[in-house]
């Protein structure tokens, strides 16, 4: 075989002037090779620019095509690959035809047809080769999926403990499928080499038949001879490949059987070892029981002389009786759902968890003239409007705030992160996840009474304890503090401002949320976006979230900017879309987050960023991020069965108002109007609600009179306090991070609960 490169290039170039029509194809094939890498025949992906016919006005337009996993997709630009695919065709059932030197057509039978044009004939041939390989592979995979499991029927393999056998069987099948796929690729390449080699030989024979004289004829004969040598070498390689293919196909069944036998033997060994371990455990327990019996007998012998021999016989009988009556194996259930470790017990015994309720009484179907109530409320603060319970859901705002912990495991994962930037992704996902419970929840939570509290002790199940207290009534403000054994603390004070605008209701949460992690002392803050309830008067109620959030790590300076896109009828984006970018203190992007606030969030690591793409709304160029494959960081849990009749509560929400022993007298679970509403007794609930609100107003007027009597002459009338109320479990102070006036948990609640001493708690119900 001649050396590639220089000799052949010089030979062809030297006869350029004499036979331009003959040599132009050869020069194009030889000299254009370095420009674009040839696609790997067995590769999974091939990308490049191709011209696609659009219409008679615009003609052929340049598009970015991606061939991957048997699918050919195209985009307007490379930047669109992350979010907008313009079209995809499955090659498994497609036909590929060549029109002329640069044009080719791909069709799946009429529904989709792509008329494409490459930049040159060589580029067209590369795409044809890659497409034929991908088509053969896709058709082969489709055939395998139709008869998958023939070689390894599920019933023929014994299940290994803990599903290990299933995993091993899957690995064996995957390895065999990969090997078979590579062998089929080799067969396809074999056919392509033979096909293209024959075409090359025919072309060279046609050149030789022209009978050129002089130096040009010599060069043509030299090229023909070298092509013949290449053909001989290729044929030898093809024959060797064919032999290997035949050998692999002949022995594949035998290899599969051998692998299956080895796997089954390994499974049997694992089962035997597990049985031996259980028997060893049983013998140890029996031996300890016999030792304790012997020690007891020795004590009896020392106390009662003259009975030593009888006692020894009794001990021996007891030992053997225990062996005979004991089960063959001792099984210790370690299911994490019904059992948990009692961390306060020094013996670390397994203690059953409390079984939580999974249903509440169905919501009654009571009619109500909404407009008769709402027409006088336009423009007013919602918290100052007396509302019947018909608009409510049977939980308080304190319990609704506690629902932010629905996906507390995101903070558990964040606490384990080594990188602060990756930790930021989990914290940002947690900030989004709190809105997933609102998508169908159009009911209004009960406004908490001043001094009302709500505790959620899930330390044994999930490692955290949560406490909320209503620390102000006008404006309504709730302080929330959560401490977790898994390395994080969450605190927030939320004041809700709301306005009724006639057609919709806007709810603006004010206040800052703090998440502090013990590892690295990372301190994050963020705020909440605006919630809008649409179709208040006419139509079906629906909820939207809109606005922007900045999650800031005050320890490192990292920042994540999240944008909640408002719903728009004319937008082509996905509804409820959320996007975000995680940047370090220098403004360099490291992660991109995308998803929806009602379904899931994903994050991708940024490898490179550049200015480009379409211009934004303000004429600025958008930033294009080149990222790795996206990873799912959060997904919404499915709603429980029958949720539509239970106010669309989640599994956690169903348990929030469940009665519990030992909670404080001010806990929301003890609120009578809320309990009556949950039980479906709405008329009684409305009467009880009015009683509680009047009692609260009377208490407020009494505090104002006391505050007025305590004013000193040095205090101006404007700066004098109008209410001397102080929260029971939270102290008012200035936040060292934000400078805001907030309420911080001062401690003592859980200790008071353990003692059961609630004498200092106010009687608000």
UniProtKB/TrEMBL annotation:
<feature type="compositionally biased region" description="Low complexity">
    <location>
        <begin position="151"/>
        <end position="161"/>
    </location>
</feature>
<feature type="domain" description="PH">
    <location>
        <begin position="43"/>
        <end position="136"/>
    </location>
</feature>
<dbReference type="GO" id="GO:0006869">
    <property type="term" value="P:lipid transport"/>
</dbReference>
<keyword id="KW-0445">Lipid transport</keyword>
<feature type="region of interest" description="Disordered">
    <location>
        <begin position="140"/>
        <end position="174"/>
    </location>
</feature>
<feature type="region of interest" description="Disordered">
    <location>
        <begin position="658"/>
        <end position="727"/>
    </location>
</feature>
<protein>
    <recommendedName>
        <fullName>Oxysterol-binding protein</fullName>
    </recommendedName>
</protein>
<keyword id="KW-0597">Phosphoprotein</keyword>
<dbReference type="GO" id="GO:0005886">
    <property type="term" value="C:plasma membrane"/>
</dbReference>
<dbReference type="GO" id="GO:0032934">
    <property type="term" value="F:sterol binding"/>
</dbReference>
<dbReference type="Pfam" id="PF00169">
    <property type="entry name" value="PH"/>
</dbReference>
<keyword id="KW-0472">Membrane</keyword>
<dbReference type="InterPro" id="IPR011993">
    <property type="entry name" value="PH-like_dom_sf"/>
</dbReference>
<feature type="compositionally biased region" description="Basic and acidic residues">
    <location>
        <begin position="667"/>
        <end position="708"/>
    </location>
</feature>
<dbReference type="InterPro" id="IPR037239">
    <property type="entry name" value="OSBP_sf"/>
</dbReference>
<dbReference type="GO" id="GO:0005829">
    <property type="term" value="C:cytosol"/>
</dbReference>
<comment type="similarity">
    <text>Belongs to the OSBP family.</text>
</comment>
<keyword id="KW-0446">Lipid-binding</keyword>
<feature type="region of interest" description="Disordered">
    <location>
        <begin position="289"/>
        <end position="315"/>
    </location>
</feature>
<dbReference type="InterPro" id="IPR001849">
    <property type="entry name" value="PH_domain"/>
</dbReference>
<keyword id="KW-0813">Transport</keyword>
<dbReference type="InterPro" id="IPR000648">
    <property type="entry name" value="Oxysterol-bd"/>
</dbReference>
<dbReference type="InterPro" id="IPR018494">
    <property type="entry name" value="Oxysterol-bd_CS"/>
</dbReference>
<dbReference type="GO" id="GO:0097038">
    <property type="term" value="C:perinuclear endoplasmic reticulum"/>
</dbReference>
<dbReference type="Pfam" id="PF01237">
    <property type="entry name" value="Oxysterol_BP"/>
</dbReference>
């Amino acid at each position: 075989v001649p050396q590639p490169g220089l000799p052949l290039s010089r030979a062809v170039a030297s006869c350029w002037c004499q036979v331009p029509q003959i040599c132009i194809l050869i020069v194009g094939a030889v000299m254009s090779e370095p420009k674009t890498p040839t696609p790997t025949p067995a590769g999974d992906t091939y990308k490049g620019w191709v011209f696609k016919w659009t219409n008679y006005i615009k003609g052929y337009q340049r598009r970015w095509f991606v061939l991957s996993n048997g699918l050919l997709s195209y985009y307007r630009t490379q930047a669109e690959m992350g979010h907008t695919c313009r079209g995809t065709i499955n090659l498994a059932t497609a036909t590929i035809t060549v029109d002329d030197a640069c044009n080719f057509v791909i069709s799946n039978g009429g529904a989709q047809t792509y008329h494409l044009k490459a930049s040159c004939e060589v580029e067209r041939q590369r795409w044809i080769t890659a497409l034929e390989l991908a088509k053969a592979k896709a058709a082969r995979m489709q055939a395998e999926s139709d008869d998958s499991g023939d070689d390894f029927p599920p019933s023929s393999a014994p299940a290994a403990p803990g599903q290990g056998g299933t995993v091993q069987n899957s690995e064996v099948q995957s390895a065999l499928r990969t090997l078979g796929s590579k062998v089929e690729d080799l067969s396809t390449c074999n056919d392509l080499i033979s096909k293209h080699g024959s075409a090359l030989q025919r072309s060279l024979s046609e050149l030789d038949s022209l009978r050129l004289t002089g130096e040009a004829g010599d060069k043509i004969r030299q090229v023909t001879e070298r092509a013949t040598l290449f053909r001989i070498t290729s044929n030898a390689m093809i024959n060797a490949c064919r032999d290997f293919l035949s050998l692999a196909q002949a022995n594949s069944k035998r290899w599969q059987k051998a692998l299956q036998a080895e796997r089954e033997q390994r499974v049997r060994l694992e089962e035997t070892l597990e049985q031996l371990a259980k028997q060893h455990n049983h013998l140890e327990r029996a031996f300890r029981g016999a030792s304790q019996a012997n020690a007891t007998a020795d004590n009896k012998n020392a106390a009662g002389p003259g009975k030593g021999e009888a006692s020894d016989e009794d001990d021996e009988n007891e030992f053997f009786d225990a062996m005979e009556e004991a089960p063959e194996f001792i099984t210790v259930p370690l299911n994490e759902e019904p059992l948990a470790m009692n961390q306060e017990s020094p013996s670390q015994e397994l203690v059953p968890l409390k079984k939580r309720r999974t249903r509440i009484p169905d919501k009654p179907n009571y009619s109500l003239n909404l407009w008769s109530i709402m027409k006088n409320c336009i423009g007013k603060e919602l918290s100052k409007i007396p509302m019947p319970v018909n608009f409510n859901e049977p939980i308080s705002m304190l319990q609704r705030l506690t629902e932010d912990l629905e996906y507390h495991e995101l903070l558990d994962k964040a606490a384990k992160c080594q990188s602060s930037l990756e930790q930021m992704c989990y914290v940002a996902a947690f900030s989004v996840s709190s809105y997933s419970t609102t998508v169908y929840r159009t009911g209004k939570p009960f406004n908490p009474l001043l001094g009302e509290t709500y505790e959620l002790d899930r330390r044994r199940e999930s490692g955290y304890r949560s406490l909320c207290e209503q620390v102000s009534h006008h404006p309504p403000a709730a302080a929330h503090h959560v401490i977790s054994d898994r390395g994080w603390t969450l605190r927030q004070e939320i004041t809700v401002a709301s306005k009724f605008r006639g057609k919709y209701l806007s709810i603006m949460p004010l206040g800052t949320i703090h998440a502090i992690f013990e590892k690295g002392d990372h301190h994050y803050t963020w705020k909440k976006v605006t919630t809008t309830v649409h179709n208040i008067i006419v139509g079906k109620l629906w909820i939207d979230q809109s606005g922007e959030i900045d999650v800031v790590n005050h320890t490192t300076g990292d920042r994540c900017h999240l944008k909640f896109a408002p719903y728009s009828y004319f937008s082509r984006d996905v509804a409820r879309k959320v996007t975000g970018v995680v940047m370090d203190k220098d403004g360099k992007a490291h992660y991109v987050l995308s998803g929806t606030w009602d379904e899931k969030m994903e994050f991708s690591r940024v490898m490179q960023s550049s200015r480009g793409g379409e211009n934004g709304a303000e004429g600025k160029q958008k930033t294009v991020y080149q990222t790795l494959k996206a990873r799912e960081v959060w997904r919404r849990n499915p709603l429980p069965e029958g949720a539509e009749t239970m106010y669309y509560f989640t599994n956690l929400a169903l348990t929030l108002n469940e009665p519990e022993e030992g909670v404080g007298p001010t806990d929301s679970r003890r609120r009578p109007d809320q309990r009556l509403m949950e039980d479906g007794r709405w008329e009684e609930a409305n009467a009880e609600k009015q009683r509680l609100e009047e009692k609260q107003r009377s208490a407020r007027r009494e505090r104002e009179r006391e505050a007025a009597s305590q004013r000193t002459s040095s205090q101006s009338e404007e700066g004098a306090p109008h209410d001397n109320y102080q929260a029971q479990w939270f102290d008012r102070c200035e936040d060292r991070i934000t400078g805001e006036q907030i309420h911080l948990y001062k401690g003592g609640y859980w200790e008071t609960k353990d003692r059961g001493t609630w004498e200092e708690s106010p009687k608000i119900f």
